[in-house]
Design a protein that fits this description.
The protein has a six-stranded mixed sheet. 39% of the residues lie in helices and 16% in strands. A hairpin with a 2-residue loop joins strand 5 and strand 6. The protein has one domain: 5'-nuclease (Rossmann fold), CATH 3.40.50. The protein is built from seven helices and six strands; from the N terminus they run E-H-H-E-H-H-E-H-E-H-E-E-H. The chain has 128 residues and is of the alpha/beta class.
C-alpha cells in the first residue's frame, strides 16, 4: 500500500467540498494518507468556520507524521511555506506528495525526488 502525503491545499479542498471525489479517495483504504500538523493547521486557518468540522472528520481518517523543516534537494526552489511540506513528506517516507499548488510545485509535478513522487491533485487517482 502506498503512503500519500496530503498538502494543506488538498486538505482544504476536500474539507470545503466533502462530496468531491478527492474526499472519497482520502477516506478510502486505497492508500495510507498522511499529513503533518503544519499542513493541517494551514488548511484549518484558511477554512471558513462552517467548513472546519468537515476538516476534523477528514483528518480522523488521516495519519499524522512529524513536521520537518529540512532544506529542499539541490536545484529545487520553493517558497518558505512549502519547504516543510516537502520535508515532512520526504522524512516520513511517503511514496507520493499530492498538492494543488501549481504556482510553487508545478516544476516538480511528475518528478520523483529520493523516492517521493510529486503529483497534482487531479493525477492522484491514477497513482493509486
Amino acid at each position: 500500500m502506498k503512503t500519500v502525503f496530503l498538502d494543506a491545499n488538498v486538505l482544504y479542498a476536500a474539507a470545503r467540498k466533502p462530496g468531491l471525489t478527492l474526499h472519497r479517495i482520502i477516506t478510502s483504504n486505497r492508500a495510507l494518507f498522511v499529513t503533518s500538523p503544519y499542513a493541517a493547521l494551514e488548511a484549518e486557518r484558511n477554512l471558513e468556520p462552517a467548513d472546519r468540522p468537515h476538516l476534523e472528520r477528514l483528518l480522523a481518517s488521516v495519519q499524522f507524521v512529524p513536521d520537518a523543516f529540512g532544506a529542499p534537494p539541490a536545484g529545487v526552489k520553493l517558497r518558505g511555506k512549502d519547504i516543510p511540506i516537502l520535508a515532512s513528506a520526504a522524512l516520513c517516507g511517503a511514496d507520493i506528495l499530492v498538492t494543488s499548488d501549481s504556482r510553487d510545485f508545478k516544476q516538480l509535478f511528475g518528478r520523483t525526488l529520493s523516492g517521493l513522487k510529486i503529483v497534482a491533485t487531479e493525477d492522484l487517482p491514477n497513482e493509486l
